[in-house]
């Protein structure tokens, strides 16, 4: 028997906010078990909706900052959780929210971020959160399965691309489990999956300039079928690519994060 059953309501789901609400207590239990909330935690939840994940977490943690954009969900959340000491609601856009402001409330405690994310904004949201990665212990997100596949893909895999390189540069990425459409109301058209992201406090490979790294990765993947020699024309020539111990005839999809960092560092060195 599921411990965490979501409550039913008459809320009209809004497509523009990606509102597919979890309806299966067993899946909610599984997500909470993966997160392993602890009494000292400073949790941040993006998109609580009708509190399917909020409810089981808020009873455990010390502080929970909840970010919701939909006006219609604000009053019900306030009424439901007003008496909970951990509860702090921010009626705002998670894409532009300054997560740094939360650090002053529990200064010794880094943030733990969770969310069944609105799928239409999941990539920009994760990139925004990476700006605060030194203050984040971990992130557990429900995303489209295809996006989790891309985030976690290894070089050479057909789903390995720019998102894989950028996320794996900043975090240890782990595919946890798949969640079918029937576990949401309304059901989305695709499978979903839970990913665990652990931001590196000491990155294994360090780009001298992260903007140059991001731009070079984008350029290297700009035309999927072309070789690095072609995609990086005007950026690095074949001799320079070889100097980084990379084959200029290879495609970007074959390169490790370490190789991208080497290429970006040489490019930055030559242009600064
Ligand atoms: N956590 C709930 C659940 O699992 O049932 C709801 C998840 S639903 C997929 C996404 C939630 O994010 C909705 O509540 C939606 O209103 C909210 N949302 C959408 N865009 C947002 C944004 N830019 N900032 C904050 N919340 C947003």
Topology, please?
Blueprint (H helix, E strand, L loop, with lengths): L20 E2 L2 H11 L6 E5 L7 H5 L4 E6 L2 H11 L5 E5 L19 E6 L5 H9 L5 E9 H8 L9 H9 E9 L4 E2 L6 E8 L10 H11 L7 H4 L6 H6 L13 H15 L1
Parallel strand pairs: 2-3, 2-5, 3-4, 5-6
Antiparallel strand pairs: 1-8, 6-9, 7-9
This protein binds S-adenosylmethionine.
S-adenosylmethionine binds next to strand 1 and strand 3.
Give the gist of this structure.
The protein has ten helices and nine strands.
**Share in helix:** 25-40%
Mean of residue pLDDT? 96
Our count of helices gives 10
Structural class computed from helices and strand pairing: alpha/beta
Ligand inventory? S-adenosylmethionine
- Which strand-content bin applies to the residues? 15-25%
Low-confidence stretches: none
The count of strands amounts to 9
Spatial separation of the terminal alpha carbons:
61 Å
Major β-sheet strand ordering: 4-3-2-5-6-9-7
- The H-and-E topology, N to C, reads as EHEHEHEEHEHHEEEHHHH
Radius of gyration: 21 Å
- What general outline do the C-alpha atoms trace? elongated
Largest sheet composition: 7 strands, mixed
Question: Could you walk me through the main structural features you see in this protein, from its secondary elements to its overall organization?
Answer:
There is one protein chain. With 272 residues, this protein is of the alpha/beta class. It is 33% helix and 19% strand. It has 10 helices and 9 strands. It has helices at residues 25-35, 54-58, 71-81, 122-130, 145-152, 162-170, 210-220, 228-231, 238-243, 257-271; strands spanning 21-22, 42-46, 63-68, 87-91, 111-116, 136-144, 171-179, 184-185, 192-199. The strands form 2 sheets. A 7-stranded mixed β-sheet has the order 4-3-2-5-6-9-7. The chain has a two-stranded antiparallel sheet with strand order 1-8. Helix 2 links the parallel strand 2 and strand 3 (63-68). The longest helix has 15 residues, at 257-271. The structure holds S-adenosylmethionine. S-adenosylmethionine is lined by residues 17-22, 46-49, 52-53, 67-70, 73, 93-95, 116, 118, 121.
